[in-house]
Amino acid sequence: MNIYKNPPKSEWDQLLKRPVEDLTVLEDLVKNIFREVKINGDKAVREFTRKFDGNTLDSLKVSPKEFHQSADMVTDELKNAIATAASNIRQFHEAQVGSSTHIEPMKGVECWQEFRAIEKVGLYVPGGTAPLFSTLLMLAIPAQISGCREIQVCTPAGKDGKIHPAILYCCHYLGLKDVFKVGGIQAIAAFTYGTETISRAYKLFGPGNQYVTAAKMWATMEGVPIDMPAGPSEVLVCSDASGNAEWIASDLLSQAEHGPDSQVIFITTSEPLIEETRIAMGIQMARLPRKSIISEALQHARAIYFEEEEMVFDFINQYAPEHLILNIHKPEEKLHKIQNAGSVFIGPYSPESAGDYASGTNHTLPTYGQARVFGGLSVRDFMKNISFQKITLTGLENLAPAIIPMAAAEQLEGHKNAVTIRLKSVT
Amino acid sequence: MNIYKNPPKSEWDQLLKRPVEDLTVLEDLVKNIFREVKINGDKAVREFTRKFDGNTLDSLKVSPKEFHQSADMVTDELKNAIATAASNIRQFHEAQVGSSTHIEPMKGVECWQEFRAIEKVGLYVPGGTAPLFSTLLMLAIPAQISGCREIQVCTPAGKDGKIHPAILYCCHYLGLKDVFKVGGIQAIAAFTYGTETISRAYKLFGPGNQYVTAAKMWATMEGVPIDMPAGPSEVLVCSDASGNAEWIASDLLSQAEHGPDSQVIFITTSEPLIEETRIAMGIQMARLPRKSIISEALQHARAIYFEEEEMVFDFINQYAPEHLILNIHKPEEKLHKIQNAGSVFIGPYSPESAGDYASGTNHTLPTYGQARVFGGLSVRDFMKNISFQKITLTGLENLAPAIIPMAAAEQLEGHKNAVTIRLKSVT
Question: Which residues of B touch A101 (CB under 8 A)?
């Protein structure tokens, strides 16, 4: 962990930096796989799956038998944990649906918005070093609440051709049936164009490694929008002298264990807390199984001491962290100062792992400074609004003095005519 | 207008098609301009402006004097029209802000979402054949309601170095000060990287021609998200035998006058209405100034007769039109059948031009079938949510039986440790 004390703003650029992710080097690979999948469908998907995942599958689609088997392979303790998490996630996301807008700005002019589900969505759940079944919950529950008609899941199988039982169990628990043993670029390509087995999705969701991220960017160029751009996971822990060094250390380490590229930042107004936290990290780290990943991530971790609290919030907003842990005195009074952050954990008993799994908030969050623009995944991301307007003759008479001069000034006589012809007919 | 009668579904693919927009041919041009603007800032912007817009500007930024002059150049009639439209647009968009989500799924676990404005936005207003000041209202009013701190506008000046007075007046009327005489690819590049005069925007909004569209796609690759992908404007008018052929004709023509690539579709369950409408179009068109544009657009326009109403809604949802005019008996009873459309105009007195200018709904709408995924521009597009969670000791005790087994099953011991270390310390 690199330590900085009262860095002047002129040096912040360096401290605010994320590692450069140059996905353009993957462009040729992505384009090639997309082209093959577009032309050859399932055949290409199978070939790339054999090549990259090292397995040969009888069927790309998970069978009912496999779902049932998964239920036997998950402990009751984990099943209960999943049920609790799913219930909390469901409550948080159900509260987001919101109601329609309805106004009548003038007599005879009614306007409103209604929200409709995106009919077909594709969810991507990474395999890799950890079986992230929690991601499945975070993607599928809001999709189900939104009312998406077709929810498909792609997730890579291991060399043995099997998906981790906890992922399959979560699909089974939520009643998802269209689950495919396909990962990486070929999964995103299959969602983009459709194949014999996997149907074309209208929007793509879910995190992934750099290959998946590059493929999702390409999908947008091919006309299929995505949830948000993804980068390495991040935490910014902010603490004053009231912070508990051991707890802060545990939060920093839980972020670091995600991967060598994890972004770990600690900001404090208490200078001694940095050293205390560093020592606590050393002790805790020795007991963690993923310590080699952690120590790689910590090489670019940053601990920053600021004397002034104003600097702290300025730094937070400029960095726009994915996760922000706020371990300060009377945190509620400072929340209005937060302009840019994905998910905020308030007070000493709110570790990031609560939100990663079970508090109910979504763990699909904006990274790489995108919290300036995007929020955590929510039900609205699986829906779109439709505007409606119903205008009566009186309403059109009321609007005409606005429409007619504006259409004329924009030199669009046809637009003007659509109003005048109606009003002339009835007078 | 091409006429089809009861086309079988096997032939729909052809009828649902949009013209292919191959923006990749512009890739080199876009990349080159972006690179120049990134390196040389204002100097490059000025050079491209001279080259493409044919003007040489003293200052890229509109001066206070120019704003004041614009007010003298706009008639009172148009000023009143703009005031009415702005008021209706403001009312519709203020109703969209919505309230925060707040839940307490377990004792001691509070979760909520808050919405914050995106701090810096860049709005693009096209110049070109028609001075689209209405677009300025549609972009800037929701941005202002959201509370965006920095709202910048780029719009191209003419060969005389001037922006159309109606556009300037709208900026002035709304109190916008950061307005730049820059258009095309160089405007989007300036927003993406920032120059000496134009500051970097976090998100880009606004329609444009193919150059602007290609530039916006490149901006997303450079990490600056956009409102939505844009294509040529579209209307689908749907009418039963109750429809008035003259009024339908006026709606089809008002769409066609947007440009030669405008998409004009008429669907009816009344066979004779097609011929009646065709005749009415011929008569009205002769009087419209943009008739050469209209006749080009009508070459690929489609009129489709369907005997069955079910087919009509099926076609609408598959096409996902930007604008949908619903001229049918008891339209309210059919609204639930509409899954994919941008803005819907209900009944005979709701022409598209009402929504284009003044009813209050936003005219920045999804084209090219993107209504499957996107809605019209709304206040939420200028904001992002932030998730908050505040957990007490009791709350963490309640969540622990969910977090701990899930973290263990995902092989993330550090995540588990962040919970257990807190609970151990206090027991």
Answer: 92, 95-96
What is the Cα Rg of chain A in Å? 25
Encoding tokens for residue A218? Answer: 């390409």
Asked if A102 and A379 count as a contact pair (C-beta separation under 8 A), the reply is: no
What mean pLDDT comes out for the span A41-68? 94
Q: Is A427 on the interface with B (CB under 8 A)?
A: no
| Chain A residues with CB-CB distance to B203 below 8 A | 373
Q: Which residues in chain B have Cβ-Cβ distances shorter than 8 Å to A412?
A: 130, 254, 257-258, 290, 353
Confirm or reject contact between A119 and chain B (CB < 8 A).
yes
| Residue B408 · residue B392 · CB < 8 Å | no
- Give the angle A244-A250-A253 at the CA atoms, nearest 5°: 140
The single residue listed with the structure tokens 């556009």 is B167
| Residues whose CB falls within 8 Å of the CB of residue B40, separated by 6 or more in sequence, listed in order | none
Inform me whether the C-beta atom of residue B347 falls under 8 Å from chain A C-beta atoms.
Answer: yes
Q: What is the ipTM of this complex?
A: 0.95
A240, A211 Cβ separation under 8 angstroms: no
User: How far apart (Å, rounded) are the C-alpha atoms in residues B387 and B112?
Assistant: 6
**Per-residue pLDDT reduced to its tens digit, B273-298:** 999 999 999 999 999 999 999 999 99
Q: What is the pLDDT of residue A174?
A: 98
Report the distance separating Cα B31 and Cα A228, nearest Å. 23
The predicted structure's pLDDT at residue A56: 87
- In angstroms, the separation between the Cα of residue B238 and the nearest Cα of chain A is 15
Give DSSP secondary structure letters for A105-173.
EETTEEEEEEEEE-SEEEEE---TTS--HHHHHHHHHHHHHHT-SEEEEE----TTS---HHHHHHHHH
Nearest to B255 by CA among B345, B318, B347: B345
Residue pointed to by tokens 């051709």: A161
Q: What is the pLDDT of residues B100-141, one digit of tens each?
A: 789 999 999 999 999 999 999 999 999 866 689 999 999 999
> Is the pLDDT confidence value at A317 over 70?
yes
Report pLDDT for B129: 63
Angstrom distances, CA of residue A84 to CA of A189, A350, B92, B341, B406: 34, 17, 39, 37, 11
Strands B234-239 and B203-205: unpaired
Test B130 with A410 for CB contact under 8 angstroms.
Answer: yes
When pLDDT is averaged across residues B86-95 and rounded to a whole number, the result is 95
Please report the domains of chain B, with CATH numbers, ordered by start residue. 2-17+231-360 (3.40.50.1980), 23-107+118-221 (3.40.50.1980), 392-425 (no CATH)
- CA proximity to B84, closest of A112, A407, A105: A105
Give A117's strand partners: A383
Q: What is the mean pLDDT of chain B?
A: 95
List pLDDT tens digits, range A166-217: 999 999 999 999 999 999 999 999 999 999 999 999 999 999 889 999 999 9
